Amino acid sequence: MTNRLDLSAPATLTVLAGSGTLSSLLTLPPGGITVSDPNTTGTLTVQIAAGNAAAALSASGVGGATVAGTGPTLTLSGTAAQVNAALSSLEVNEPSTVSQDVLMISASDPMALAAQTEVFISVPPQTGPAFVAPPMLVTLQPNAVDALPGLLLSDPAASALTAVGKGQSETLSLTLAVASGVLLLPGYSATSAVAASGLGTGTMTLNFTADEVGALNALLAGLQFAGPAGGEHLDYTLVSQRTLLTYGNIYLNVAGTAGANGSIVSGGQTLVLGGEALSGGLNVTGTNTMLGDSSISDLVIAPNAALELPYNALSLSGTNMDFGTLAAGSFSLSGALEAANGAVLQGPVLLGAGARVDFSGTLQAGAAETLNYQMALALAAGAVISGNGTVQAGNFSEAGVIAGPGTLLALGGETLVLAGGSVGGGADLAVAAGGVMEVGPSDSLFGVFTATAITIDSSVTLSFLGSVGATPVSG
To answer: The domain that contains 196 carries what CATH number?
Structure first.
């Protein structure tokens, strides 16, 4: 029979400085560091010594092993099972002043057999994230889809968390913004590890965890821009749980011969330069962005799809169905629109005679308004808005105006909330049997601290359908 004492350990470990509980020991399976001696049931002794005198080693004796030593040295003794239980609880604490260390591990038994091994320890720097040498200026072609290079994120702290099995413990958010163009991310899909919002708009947000920095950089390598001639900045801001980590900008010199108008497909995103006039219907299944005023009849936006006109006017006619996201600089409707998830419309909204909108969630008009009490939503005679949610005129800072003579209707079983600065123009506020209409915000939608009271002028009519008829509002 061969007498042999075996000592097993990984070749390398990663330890976060100042925390013995955060190391790649956590990622090792049970028995990652073990001693085995099939030929004896006597007492085994394992000695562990760190090369760095400022290191601190510790282990638990709960499993029956005797644990002795302080600082950079540790001695474990007991049966193989007891020693291995103590080894499974081993913690290595390194100071932030070092970048590496070596553990020297030796074992012996009563038969004078011995084994030894070394484990290299990497102590990553706790350096915060930063983009690696981003360019100060990039020249791009106007009215064309052009590559926007230069954003590569380095995050040693995130890499360290990933190495010790804690890559999911930190969530980061990167916001990219331009003032007058749109940003595209052709490598993105619904199955991407990184979550993205605002694709095909001027403000894109990417949410990811520490172990997804590589996936983020792969997406950023394909970042694209399209916009008009001129100069502007690409602003980038990285935060973690509302803590600002890094920020900066790249100057975009958009100059030269403008590209031709037309439709460009970039991954799952479609960009239409110059806008479109479509009378035969449009089915949107991905992200469609239009840089130019557009008119569409019989629009259908599929679930999880988006139609974005961040700077331009959209005119809809016919029967339109929105099950995804609809956003436009300004909006007019001469037909019908069913908006299952509401809509965010940056500029004023005009509903023509006989137009009909039914929505759920929030229907916001004048979302980008910078002045108080500007026209946000106008309903011509015969136009009707109904829905279960909030009609919001204006934004968090600026209260907008809703004007008739069309109708805002609370149907039976639904609650319609009107939030804005004022309602006038002969609008009809109609409440069907079983419906509820709340006039004025119950929370602070406008202004930083207090809600702006909504004003209902004397031209407005309040109608209780199927009840006492119409009652003019006075006072």
So the answer is: 2.60.40
In whole angstroms, give the CA distance from residue 58 to residue 358.
65
Residue 315 counted as domain residue: yes
CA distance 17 to 131: 23
Return the structure tokens found at 346: 């940056």
What is the model's pLDDT at position 449? 47
What pLDDT, in 10s, does the model give residues 42-59? 789 999 999 999 999 999
Per the DSSP assignment, residues forming a β-bridge with 358 are: 338, 386
Report d(CA 37, CA 34) in Å as an integer: 10
CA atoms of 308 and 283, how far apart (whole Å): 14
Which helix (H) or strand (E) element contains residue 107?
strand 100-108
Are residues 225 and 275 located together in one domain of the fold?
no
Rounded distance between C-alpha atoms, residue 332 and residue 315, angstroms: 5
Both 117 and 134 in one domain: the answer is no
The residue segments making up the domain with residue 137 are: 130-254
Q: Are residues 309 and 195 in the same domain?
A: no
Please indicate, yes or no, whether residues 279 and 419 belong to a single structural domain of this protein.
Answer: yes
Same-domain check for residues 76 and 210: no
Tell me the mean pLDDT per 10 residues along the chain, length 475. Answer: 75 81 65 76 89 92 93 93 90 89 91 86 85 96 95 89 83 96 93 92 95 96 96 96 91 96 92 90 94 96 94 95 94 95 92 95 92 94 95 88 95 93 94 89 49 82 70 49
Taking each continuous run of H as one helix and of E as one strand, the counts in the chain are: 3, 46
Among the candidates 69, 97, 122, a domain finishes at: 122
